[in-house]
User: Which sequence fits this backbone?
């Protein structure tokens, strides 16, 4: 065991998290956490991947009754270990700011590597995610089955029922999460460091998502625990961020249930260094807005109803976006089944995405509506019931831009569908395939030559096709002549 302790210290030195002068201090901190009084100084340091070293130390802690054996408890313990190697926030901030003065890309490159080296971003788990691309009507869509976000283990779920909720931190996006030891219901963050930035003359922070759905997936969070809101200030904040970090895009989830993200209680944006399918989609019809001659505008060739604005002047984009938002908030067109509100409940909002195009600024405004009906209780502009076997969850910012984040259950379910299609077995009798049976039967009819060699590729393509349909369902204006006329009618209403 002592060899693993030495191996972890060496890892810290090699990655630059600590220096040689910190080795004895960190060793003693590890001994304290592991409830050991001494270390065998003759033991050879174990040279192994970080995940293997941490797993061995967790095994030791479990065997000594220091922690429980379960993924939640082990995550809490190995994060405490990594917290010992993680520099103080002030050191991290100083380094980031020094690099930023040289070049913003240098700063984010170093900060992203740091967030991986501390194991806040668990590289070993990210490798488990299943990813592929689907080339279809809307270009090359990104499809992922997310396996890196761990499921709660049964012991943790049972213990959490009896746990007292402290209300501190208020949520996982609060700045108070930095360095927090965590509980069975709140992830440990001793190895987490955030970068202060100023947006809209207020305190915000930059961090990375621990689950990294795409390259350098960052989160930009308000320093105050305040609800999500899409308004004029939100557009300004997004454009200020891409001024600070021109190599990143940034977007916001909408601010209403069903069409919003999973956390509406804390204002935040998501960004990163990745070109999404939506960004590659061209403008298929140019439009204009009176009073904004310097802004190029158009409808994007995309399944969700999107207005793209481009200008060298970010303030003009803020002004026009605000006009469009105000018009959309109050817009009703019964013939197109667009209702601004029903029984006092508002339905219309926008999902905005900002990026740079050279010296220009670009804003994509995706029109959203969260109305429900008895036929579509989860939302009219939400994946309909026939698609729920693949995607039932809300269509948030990431999906809007063309990256499907699909549930982990599909790993086993799609493998079972593939096996059943090849063997010809009954799809309805297996719990893994029953929900997919109708869809799979259509695949069988569509591909009479399906066999063990091509089944996986065919199924992946068909999942991609379903995701394209998911996005179409989420679009408030359908991609036909009638839908386009209704879309243009709204644009003409913007004053």
Assistant:
């Amino acid at each position: 065991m002592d060899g693993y302790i030495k191996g972890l210290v060496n890892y810290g030195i090699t990655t630059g998290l600590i220096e040689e002068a910190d080795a004895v201090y960190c060793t003693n901190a590890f001994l304290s956490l592991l409830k050991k009084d001494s270390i065998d100084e003759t033991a050879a340091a174990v040279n192994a991947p970080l995940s293997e070293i941490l797993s061995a130390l967790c095994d030791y802690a479990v065997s000594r009754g220091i922690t429980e054996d379960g993924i939640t408890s082990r995550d809490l313990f190995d994060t405490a270990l990594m917290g010992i190697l993680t520099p103080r926030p002030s050191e991290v901030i100083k380094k980031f700011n020094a690099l930023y003065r040289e070049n913003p890309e240098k700063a984010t490159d170093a900060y992203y590597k740091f967030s991986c080296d501390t194991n806040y971003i668990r590289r070993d788990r990210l490798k488990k995610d299943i990813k592929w691309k689907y080339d279809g009507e809307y270009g090359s869509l990104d499809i992922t089955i997310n396996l890196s976000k761990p499921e709660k283990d049964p012991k943790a779920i049972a213990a959490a029922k009896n746990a007292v909720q402290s209300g501190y931190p208020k949520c996982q996006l609060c700045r108070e999460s930095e360095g927090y030891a965590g509980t069975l219901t709140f992830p440990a963050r001793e190895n987490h460091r955030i970068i202060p930035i100023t947006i809209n003359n207020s305190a915000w922070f930059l961090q990375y998502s621990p689950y990294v759905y795409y390259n350098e997936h960052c989160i930009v969070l308000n320093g105050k625990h305040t609800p999500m809101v899409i308004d004029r200030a939100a557009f300004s904040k997004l454009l200020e961020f891409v001024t600070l970090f021109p190599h990143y895009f940034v977007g916001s989830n909408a601010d209403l249930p069903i069409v919003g993200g999973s956390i509406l209680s804390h204002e935040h944006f998501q960004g990163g260094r990745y070109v999404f399918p939506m960004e590659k989609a061209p403008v298929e019809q140019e439009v204009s807005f009176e009073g904004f001659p310097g802004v190029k505008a158009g409808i994007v060739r995309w399944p969700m109803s999107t207005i793209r604005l481009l200008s060298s002047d970010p303030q003009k984009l803020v002004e026009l976006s605000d006009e469009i938002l105000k018009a959309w908030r109050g817009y009703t067109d019964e013939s197109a089944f667009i209702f601004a509100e029903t029984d006092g409940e508002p339905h219309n909002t926008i999902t905005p995405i900002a990026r740079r195009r050279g010296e220009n600024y670009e804003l994509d405004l995706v029109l959203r509506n969260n109305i429900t009906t008895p036929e579509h209780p989860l939302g009219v502009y939400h994946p309909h019931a026939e698609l729920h076997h693949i995607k039932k969850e809300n269509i948030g910012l990431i999906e809007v831009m063309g990256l499907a984040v699909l549930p982990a259950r599909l790993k086993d379910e799609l493998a079972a569908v593939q096996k059943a299609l090849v063997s010809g077995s009954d799809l309805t009798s297996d719990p893994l395939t029953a929900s997919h049976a109708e869809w799979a039967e259509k695949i069988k009819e569509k591909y009479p030559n399906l066999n063990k060699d091509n089944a996986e590729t065919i199924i992946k393509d068909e999942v991609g096709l379903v995701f394209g349909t998911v996005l179409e369902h989420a679009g408030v204006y359908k991609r036909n002549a009638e839908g386009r006329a209704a879309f243009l009618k709204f644009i003409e209403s913007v004053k």
About this structure: The radius of gyration is 25 Å.
